[in-house]
Amino acid sequence: MSTRLLSIIRKEFIQIWRDPRTVAIIIILPIMQLFLMGYAATNDVRNVPMAFWDQSQTPASRALLDAFRAAGYFRIAYEVDSEDQLRALIEEGKARAGLIIPSDYGERLADGEAQVAFILDGSDPTVGSTALSSARSIGQAHSTRILEERLAALGMTDMMQQPLDVRTQVWYNPDLVSAYFMIPGVIGMILYAITSVLTATTIVRERERGTIEQLIVTPIRPWELVVGKILPYVILAFLDTFEVLAIGHWWFDVPVRGDLGLLVFTSGLLLLSGLGIGLFFSTMANTQQEAMLMVWMTLLPAIFLSGFFFPIEAMPQVLQWLSRIIPLRYYLVIIRSILLKGAGLPAIQDEILALALFGVAIMGAAAARFRKRLD
Questions:
Q1: Residue 5 belongs to a domain
Q2: How many CA atoms lie within 13 A of 208 on its CB side?
Q3: 330 to 34, 129, 162, 266, 279: CA distances (angstroms)
């Protein structure tokens, strides 16, 4: 490695550590994103506040309430005396669900014709759909338990055998913990977002200060300037990756089942795209604000269309086609497969090939444009 290139790299590291905002973005922001995504961005619906109106006041009605309470999905928060009170609690947002048990619940249950009303706040469809499914499952399980008790009391245990037994198995994430899905995505978002933003702004910052012209007239070759400016961010991006991976594993218990060497290699391929985007926009922007705005115009669609938050299969067909030109989409499949499934190269070779093609194309185009700008 030439002394000129080492000088550029050393100069870039000095500028990074002298800028508190850049240091905060590199060190603090990934940790903040990790804990926010690990705790806040979750699809697990638990402890939904529920109000109930028990007009029956019988052991049977209390057993039904105990079934809802024991499941863990609902928290019995309020007891009301009328439907108007229940409606007021839901309108005020204090309760998200309501259960109305009629006065003749005990008698109708004995006749096998009991009905209860379950009211759900559907203003949040994500929570509402999961809570609705949970309520139905609780009701079915409680009904089956009552039926089994009656058959056992009549000595008809042979009729308790179900004609079909569906035994479910959940692989790779048995407890369906959302953090296992979100934290690998945070690594991809950090690699993609931070490197592109910092690369774009740091080169534009040289132009704002007038130092880019001083570098051009020196004996430094254009490729040395490009490599020297982006290599420090490659190193820092990998440090952020291992930082998030270590905290995610030790704090959130995210499994690491695959080959870390393969993970590092594929992360480097994603870095080509992120650094290339930053380098490309740095040749177009005149100020750091312009550079950040241009980068965020590509980052927001990338985050939403990559499968980071929402499944691609649930999107309209047009958006599914559009997601195919987003490198982050392929990396998220790769990192989740490596960490959660322990997948090897044959299982993810198509995604690796796509990521490599995008990375080489984007970085090649950006480097050519940047070099032409210098010449």
A1: no
A2: 14
A3: 20, 29, 44, 10, 21
Domain limits at 128?
Answer: 48-160
- Distance, CA of 21 to CA of 28 (rounded, Å): 10
Token pair recorded at residue 91: 């309108």
83-135 per-position pLDDT tens digit: 899 999 988 888 889 999 998 888 888 777 888 999 988 876 767 777 888 88
Render pLDDT for 20-69 as a digit per residue (tens, 0 to 9): 777 777 777 778 777 777 776 666 667 889 999 999 999 888 998 999 88
The Cα–Cα gap between 52 and 302 comes to 44
Q: Which residue has the higher pLDDT, 229 or 145?
A: 145
CA distance 278 to 241: 19
d(CA 317, CA 262): 31
Where does residue 4 rank: exposed (0-12), middle (13-18), buried (19+ CB within 10 A)?
middle
The residue to which tokens 């499994």 are assigned: 255
pTM of the predicted structure, to 2 decimals: 0.76
Euclidean distance between CA atoms 218 and 225, whole angstroms:
10
Domain of residue 76, CATH code: 3.40.1710.10
Cβ-based neighbour number of residue 332 at 10 Å: 24
